[in-house]
Design brief:
Elements (H helix, E strand, L loop, with lengths): L1 H13 L4 H16 L4 H12 L4 E2 L10 E2 L1 H9 L7 E7 L5 H6 L6 E5 L2 E5 L4 E3 L3 H4 L3 E8 L8 E3 L12 H11 L8 H5 L11
Parallel strand pairs: 1-2
Antiparallel strand pairs: 3-7, 4-5, 4-7, 5-6, 6-8
Helix pairs in contact: 1-2, 1-7, 2-3, 3-7
Length: 204
Amino acid sequence: MGEISALATKAARGSGLDWGLAEEAGYAVKWLQRRRLPGVMALCRYLSWRHGGNITNWPEETGVHGHYCPIAIGAAYGDGAFGDEAQFSRIKTPLLLIPFAAIRLTEKPLEINIGSSSFYLTKDQIGYTNNDTAILSDAAACQISIASASLPNVTITSTSDLPRVPSTATACVSVLERFAKNTYAPASEESRLAGAGAGLNDND
């Protein structure tokens, strides 16, 4: 989980997000994967789309017909920029918003409606009403509210330290690795002479 968080952070930075939001992306992916939710796939989809997308960071910006960034909106919500209950339209890859909603959890459970899917968060559990295909929606309106009761009859998942990301996400990991390469400094004669790599004495 630590390795995939670090990779997600580098990939987000390599796609153009600043380091602060990139670190938030790494947090979100790790939070989701530990709860057996497809965080790697969600970030892969979002970063792949982001290059040509029309992104609006803040709901107050009117007259813009793009999508809101789930990481920027989520980080702002987690930091208290919005009330406990908030509504956003056109969130891209909205699954990435959920880990930031969890930051604001109190004794009362939260309900997060994402299109036709509903998520319910408590301090110890997360429940949701649809399968992974519905969870990985491309874009949707999102509403965060205080749940009126405990978790209803939904699929429950809890925190788990899985040894590795599922094999079904292998292609997405490769995409993140390609984005991450954009953060690496290119090799130069000066860097090799300074000790990077084998330098001029490669005896292998």
